[in-house]
Amino acid sequence: MSETVLQVADGAVELGGRPILRGIDVSVGRGEVLAVLGANGSGKSTLVRAMMGLVPVCRGEVRLFGTPLAQFRDWQRVGFVPQRVTAASGVPASVREVVASGRLSRRRPFWPSSRADRAAVEDAIAAVDLTDKAREGVSTLSGGQQQRVLIARALAGVPDLLVLDEPTSGVDVQSQHTFADALGALAARGATIVLVAHELGPLGRLVDRTVVMRDGRVAYDGPPIAVFTEADPHHHHDGPVGQADQAGRSEHGPVVTSPLDREDRR
Amino acid sequence: MSILDYPFVVRALLGALFTGLAAPAVGTYLVQRRLALMGDGIGHIAVTGVALGLLTGTSPTVTAVIVAVLGAVVIEVIRETGRTSGDVALALLFYGGIAGGVLITGLAGQSAATLNIYLFGSITTISAGDLRVTAVLAAVVVVVAVGLSPQLFAVAQDTEFARVAGLDVRLYNMLVAVLAAVTVTVAMRTVGLLLVSALMVVPVATSQQVTRTFRATLFAAMGLGILASLGGVVISSYVNAAPGATIVLLALAGFAAAYPVGVLLRRRQRLTSPFAEPADEPALPARRTGGHLVAREDHGHAHGEACGHPAVPHGDHVDYVHDGHRHAAHGSHYDEH
Q1: Among A40-49, B3-12, B65-74, B83-92, which stretch is predicted with the lowest mean pLDDT?
Q2: Nearest CA in chain B to A99
Q3: Contact: B158, A110; criterion CB under 8 Å
């Protein structure tokens, strides 16, 4: 029996009164590489945000390493790469400074960084092939390089579970291969990886299981299928569950067609 | 006789030193969150605090700190929960703060001149007691802003990542808001409530013209803040000008001087940034058949480190930017790349 690292049981999410996810049952075992796929607005991004506690579940439960999310304190075991266009903010910051944020879950306030912290930061920068850019400002890097900085930041914490939200959207081919290598090394170490993607590209070879989201539900959960790992992301019309898209339905807003049955409303 | 022989000048210089150190330290985090005007907002709200002090006969500094902290917390709560009209809600607070201040000052039977001391600063009338309070508050602000800089940086830089890293994002956001409120009241006597924000923001804007790292920006901003504050007090004591306004104008002059340097640095940076070799781009037919394009210019010199043309790494060799296009050495001539 392998240990369950991440579990969502009967999960449902409402945002602003609109149901986004319902009836989600997903569990990820130790060492698995799971890809969450789906069209725009299918709820895949909301699913990983709920897994990380960034949006609350209004029904059901999320457990990380067997602990309910509300009681979970072991955040240094989790690395997260949020969906972002840029790694820059209103003030200049070097690549090394942004990546060093990844050690904060292991550091105490007011204490200087240890030698182990600095070594882990350098290793993470090297893993995404940016060592010669470590002193540069992140705002001067290309989009793909900035995404690599965000991956390095998550790698710096040496996580047992790495969750990535659309890490490869709008990223050049060279950077995608660098990602795939860095994630491959992490998976080889026995880490668990959950990856939200529009299209997998070079990451496809790492994935050993896919969950396909459609209209806020899990439509497919099983081994990778070619149609999802290669297809044009905007044309998932013939998925393995055989649902045809209803005419006129928006593909770009999360849609669950009936209201949620919440326990606290009964 | 030197100006340092007057005790009030010494007190003014010390007050300026503490303010110049603390204001940019907090300002860096406000600029990072793109909340450069938050200091202004808190300054407006603090006017009501000063007026309450005048009305009740207590120290205006104490009431200003209390009201400014409350206002900063309210701003932070609105920012966190209100998604749609956060800036409108902030504007309402700003105007409410300054209108309330003017109204209450009138009720207290004080003239607008009394309020002016706080609105535009009056660093030369600062007392020894005021100075001690200023020193302690500034020290707290600087210790927190520098000591917690990795955490505050991470929270401002990427909130979602910070939450998943286990940081208490709300606590750190509140901390910055409270630090900003404390700084506003510290700087109230130096540059005045209406100009506080300038001392928080302008040194940061100046230093980030030339810096590449966050720590360098933070420390350079604090250094520039001290320079502007001390310089402003010294200049105003010689030419008999308002110290607060002199400090702010000096800081702005610093920005005006640094901006062209920043433009030049960014231009150089763009020119010398390497070109990624596109892996999947089809080669142009002309290049495929011709092999290469020979540069038309006659070269009086060989491109190298000293020729003055920016060098750009390009795959396995180095190109030189020449009149807007790139030259690569090829035997006895240069190719266009």
Answers
A1: B83-92
A2: B154
A3: no
Q: Are residues A174 and A143 in contact, defined by beta-carbon separation less than 8 angstroms?
A: no
Query: What interface predicted TM-score (ipTM) does this complex get?
Result: 0.82
CATH code for residues B3-196: 1.10.3470.10
| pLDDT for the residue A16 | 81
B127 vs A: CB within 8 A: no
| Domain extents in chain B | 3-196, 285-336
pLDDT at B273: 66
State whether residue A67 sits within 8 Å of chain B by CB. no
> What tokens appear for A138 in the block?
């992140």
Ordered domains of chain A (ranges, CATH): 4-237 (3.40.50.300)
What does the pLDDT look like over A75-94, one tens digit per residue? 999 999 998 767 788 899 99
Contact across the interface for A104 and B154, Cβ inside 8 Å: yes
Interface contact flag, A105 B154, Cβ < 8 Å? no
Residues of B in contact with A97 (CB under 8 A): 153, 213-215
Structure tokens at A185: 């090394």
**What's residue B280's pLDDT?**
47
What is the DSSP secondary-structure string of B240-291? T--HHHHHHHHHHHHHHHHHHHHHHHHHHHHHHSPBP--SSPPPPHHHHHH-
Q: Which long-range contacts (CB under 8 A, 24 or more apart) does B308-316 make?
A: B310/B268, B310/B271, B310/B272, B311/B272, B312/B271, B312/B272, B312/B273, B312/B274, B312/B275, B313/B274, B314/B274, B314/B275, B314/B277, B315/B277
- Mean residue pLDDT across chain B: 85
The pLDDT-based confidence of A250 (bands split at 50, 70, 90) is very low
A89 shares contact with chain B (CB less than 8 Å): yes
